[in-house]
Specification:
heterodimer; A: mainly alpha; MetI-like fold; 2 domains; extended; disordered N terminus; B: alpha/beta; Rossmann fold; 6-stranded mixed β-sheet; 4-stranded antiparallel β-sheet; globular
Chain lengths: 369, 282
């Protein structure tokens, strides 16, 4: 609960730097026993568990590597005899890319892939810059003639794909926000509307993202039938929005319909008009719940995004993962794991971001989960 | 004709087999400028009675007349101070009061409205806290805000539903004096619901006990013949005070006893003794 003390008007640092003073005290030797325990629990234990995780991962990867290597050598022995088996073993030991067993990558391989992806990104960025410089004069001419300028159509880098994924997720989130919040407010205010929409929510809420994608595909394909533009972005963000809006819809409806009776009595005693009542009493008091819903919506949106990009062939992390899997190159598996960690990290940061906004707008800090 | 009049008012909740009659046959008359206190046990239907008078609920039977006109909904003429303050936690003290003032005087300009807000916040001695939110205030300060909010609408009658019952004794005494001061200034009609007999005697002209519910009804009234302004320390030596206090408490204890004897199902507790309780946890 301590992280949630971000008080209105005085936002604190998102990442706490309190441990620096703790470290200072540690070296100067004046650290109380409880502080040592706190340090132990907050930093030493997580670091130890991460190291343990990496160790287990490394050993597991090695075991899988050995299984596959043994299998290959054995296969060569059975099919082509002792000589071929020896050659295979020598090839594997030499680290030659052509005969490496392709299994779960080790932490070191993943780290190397991460670095190579970054290198790739800087190469592509330089490429883009060169392209812009090269085509500047030509594009000016084309614009003067009323033609479209030439744009860079090369391969997107890993960072480009992350940004594209973020764009899709925020577009979907924004769509969910625009649909779910007003609809939820109306449902919360009117029991008639609530019973009219309730079956709709109950039935569609558990539908899988894949099915939502297919439904959106059917509709968007027809709607954009004349358009020459790539509809994959539209399809993916609409699907993401539809998959993720339910939490916000339900939470908004519940928040609006369960306003504290005391506040409603105040509204009655002050004789507030219905417009005033909604905007001055009902909505402010349901803000914490609405934001809890939006937080869930954003994390669901990020989670389904990967699957939907993969299906929609929309550029982004999902497509990156899928292409690497299809690619089957020597470092593909480790690139997939890099993507996995980045997806998790970005999801975590998005969640923190929503928590910060939620804490800033809601009056009741204890309700923020 | 009385200022506020309740005629044979009954209130039931639920219907059919689940029907419970909370209040029955309530008759009450309050004159203009009078300060009346209704004293009752918790759960006797006091809040229901308040909500009937301020218009949040409507009676099942009987009628409630305010200045001769039946009460049908809430009105700015009757200001309410709720038991649990009911301040909006997302607004500051000033904004909470401003909201009420704006509704009560829609024709006034913004600066006039702000003037009224400042006056009333000043009156309850909260000017330094005008930009604070309710959760930064103590219970007594919150209730002061609620008082300021109710009074800022310049109601002709103030209805208080156990306004001080959640406060400590000292704050309670101070707020009693503040409310009496404000009431004394322009002699508005006031109705105080309380569970504290002393508070009733100190503040009111008349005390009416509410017999415990279900089927709660008003008991005989007790007039308080003590001159205002009353002094708390002198009150203890006042023979009139002692007499009235004893009479009311005796009445309340008697009806409490009656109610106890009406309880039929007595559950006998089993006689159990822990075998070696003392040694076990050492």
């Amino acid at each position: 609960m301590k992280q949630q003390s971000i008080a209105l008007g005085k936002p604190r640092l998102f990442i706490r730097l309190g441990f620096i003073t703790t470290f200072k005290d540690l070296f100067s030797g004046n650290l109380a026993k409880e502080e040592i325990q706190k340090l132990l629990r907050k930093f030493i234990v997580p670091i130890a568990s991460i190291l343990l995780f990496l160790g287990l991962w490394h050993m597991g990867a090695k075991a899988l590597y050995n299984i596959e290597a043994d299998f290959r050598i054995n296969k060569a022995l059975v099919e082509r005899g002792q000589e071929a088996a020896d050659a295979e073993a020598a090839c594997i030991d030499s680290g030659d890319i052509t005969c490496q067993p392709n299994s779960l990558p080790s932490p070191a391989q993943v780290w190397n892939s991460y670095k190579s992806l970054l290198r790739d990104h800087s190469i592509i960025t330089a490429d883009k810059k060169a392209f812009v410089v090269k085509t500047a004069a030509l594009n000016e001419k084309r614009i003067a003639q009323g033609k479209d300028p030439i744009v860079y159509t090369g391969r997107p880098s890993f960072v480009d794909q992350i940004l594209r994924s973020l764009k899709t997720v925020f577009a979907g989130f924004f769509l969910a926000f625009l649909v779910a919040v007003p609809l939820g407010i109306f449902m919360g205010l009117s029991p008639t509307l609530k019973s009219a929409f309730n079956w709709f929510i109950q039935i569609f809420k558990p539908v899988s993202p894949v099915v939502w994608y297919l439904l959106v595909f059917m509709i968007v394909k027809t709607v954009l039938i004349d358009s020459s533009e790539d509809s994959s972005f539209t399809i993916s963000f609409v699907s993401v929005g539809l998959c993720s809006m339910w939490a916000t819809l339900v939470n908004t409806a519940v928040g609006v319909s369960s306003v504290d009776k005391d506040y409603l009595n105040v509204a009655k005693v002050l004789k507030l008009g219905s417009f005033q009542k909604i905007f001055k009493v009902v909505l402010p008091s349901s803000l914490p719940l609405i934001f809890t819903g939006l937080k869930i919506t954003l994390s669901v949106a990020w989670m389904v995004l990967i699957a939907i990009e993969l299906l929609a062939q929309s550029p982004g992390l999902g497509l990156f993962v899928w292409e690497e899997f299809q690619n089957g190159a020597n470092d593909s598996n480790s690139k997939i794991i890099v993507a996995m960690f980045l997806i998790g990290l970005i999801g975590f940061l998005l969640d923190r971001l929503m928590l910060m906004i939620q804490n800033a707008v809601s009056f009741n800090k204890s309700q923020a989960i | 004709m009385a200022y506020l009049e309740l005629k044979n008012v009954c209130k039931t909740y639920g219907a059919g087999a689940n029907e419970t009659q909370v209040l029955s046959d309530i008759n009450l008359e309050i004159e203009e400028g009078e300060f009346v206190a209704i004293v009752g046990f918790t759960g006797s239907g006091k809040t229901t009675l308040v909500n009937l008078i301020n218009g949040l609920l409507s009676p099942t039977e009987g009628e409630i007349l305010f200045k001769g006109i039946p009460v049908e909904s809430t009105s700015h003429e009757r200001g309410v101070i709720f038991q649990n303050y009911s301040l909006l936690p997302w607004l500051t003290v000033g904004q909470n009061v401003y909201m009420a003032v704006k509704e009560a005087f829609p024709d006034k300009s913004k600066s006039e409205l702000n003037g009224i807000v400042n006056d009333y916040v000043e009156m309850v001695n909260l000017s330094p806290a005008i930009n604070k939110r309710p959760n930064e205030l103590s219970g007594g300060m919150r209730q002061r805000v609620a008082v300021a909010r109710a009074l800022s609408m310049k109601p002709e009658m103030i209805i208080m539903d156990e306004p001080l019952s959640a406060l400590d004794a000292l704050t309670r005494g101070n707020l009693q004096d503040e409310i009496l001061n404000i009431w004394g200034k322009d002699q508005r009609t006031a109705l105080l619901i309380t569970n504290d007999v002393d508070e009733g005697i100190y503040m009111a002209d008349r005390i009416i006990p509410l017999r415990p519910g279900p089927n709660a009804t008003l008991g005989p009234e007790f007039k308080i013949d003590i001159d205002r302004p009353r002094d708390k320390t002198e009150l203890n030596d006042n023979p009139n005070y002692k007499k009235t206090r004893n009479a009311i408490i005796e009445y309340l204890i008697n009806i409490g006893e009656q109610r106890k004897s009406e309880v039929q199902d007595l559950v006998e507790l089993p006689e159990l003794e822990p075998e070696s309780f003392v040694g076990r946890f050492k």
